[in-house]
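Support request from a user on the community tier.

User writes: "When I paste my structure tokens into the form, the page sometimes reloads and wipes my input. The last time it worked, I copied everything first. Here is what I submitted, just in case something in the input itself triggers the reload:"
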């Protein structure tokens, strides 16, 4: 089954790559329109700047585009997230390959009297992370299937490929809903010639994101990691502020691990009870 899905996905990607020249023209037109809008907006912003005082020395500087620079800075942060994500498979491979050695070396870091408690803590951390991965995978699968069905109904080309990308990025808190718009919109630029289908795509992706964040995630993930809604919200705000987009992705598993550690350290048990209350 997995081989059939993988082979189908490869065929879809190959076909999309062959059709990519057909998408270049509408993408170029959209990019040009956005660039003109940004230039118009920046010119209006520059018009409201206070006039130069008489007698002041005017120094010519390179033209700056604050709006464009802000957008590029956001794109660079997203690029950093995707680059970091590519290292995850290699990290998991080396961790699994050296699991026994790492486990033994970790035990040696603690006194012999504490090793039983440490072993219990690490075992529970493993179970919590495994449960988190399983729950998140179920939510992602539901989002992919729902997106696939919607894209198929509206007649979008490459519905499974668009649903796969949109469904995965839709799992990212806050930013994921916006990122999920781009795959179907880019594909639809060639075949849709009115704004209604694009509005429908954005509305549907937003509804799916809200449904996943408010119903699916608490039902399929929240109880598995044993964190209450307030703790999850605070964790997303804190780790997102600390690490940016990557913090939003790692907020739940990191906080779940902290909760397990607090449960096994006597002085921190009140914190663990608050996180799961």
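"...and here is what came back when it finally went through:"
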């Amino acid at each position: 089954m997995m081989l059939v899905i993988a082979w189908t996905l490869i065929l879809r990607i190959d076909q999309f790559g062959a059709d990519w020249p057909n998408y270049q023209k509408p993408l170029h037109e959209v990019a040009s329109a956005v660039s003109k809008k940004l230039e118009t907006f920046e010119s209006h912003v520059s018009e409201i700047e206070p006039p130069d005082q008489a007698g002041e020395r005017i120094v010519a500087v390179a033209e700056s585009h604050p709006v464009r620079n802000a957008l590029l800075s956001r794109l660079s942060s997203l690029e950093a997230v995707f680059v970091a994500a590519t290292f995850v498979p290699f990290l998991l491979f080396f961790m699994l390959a050296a699991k026994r050695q790492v486990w033994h070396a970790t035990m040696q870091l603690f006194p012999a009297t504490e090793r039983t408690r440490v072993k219990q803590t690490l075992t529970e951390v493993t179970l919590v992370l495994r449960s988190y991965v399983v729950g998140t995978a179920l939510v992602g699968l539901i989002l992919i299937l729902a997106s696939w069905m919607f894209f198929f109904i509206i007649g979008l080309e490459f519905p499974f490929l668009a649903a796969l990308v949109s469904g995965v990025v839709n799992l990212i808190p806050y930013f994921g809903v916006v990122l999920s718009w781009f795959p179907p919109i880019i594909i639809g630029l060639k075949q849709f010639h009115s704004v209604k289908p694009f509005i429908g795509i954005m509305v549907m992706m937003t509804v799916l994101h809200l449904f996943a964040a408010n119903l699916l995630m608490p039902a399929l993930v929240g109880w598995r990691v044993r964190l209450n809604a307030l703790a999850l919200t605070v964790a997303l705000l804190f780790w997102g502020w600390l690490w940016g987009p990557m913090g939003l992705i790692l907020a739940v598993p990191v906080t779940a691990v902290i909760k397990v550690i607090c449960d096994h350290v006597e002085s921190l048990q009140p914190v663990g009870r608050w996180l799961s209350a």
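Agent notes: The reload is a front-end session timeout and is unrelated to the input. The mean pLDDT is 76. The two ends are 41 Å apart (CA to CA). Escalated to web team.
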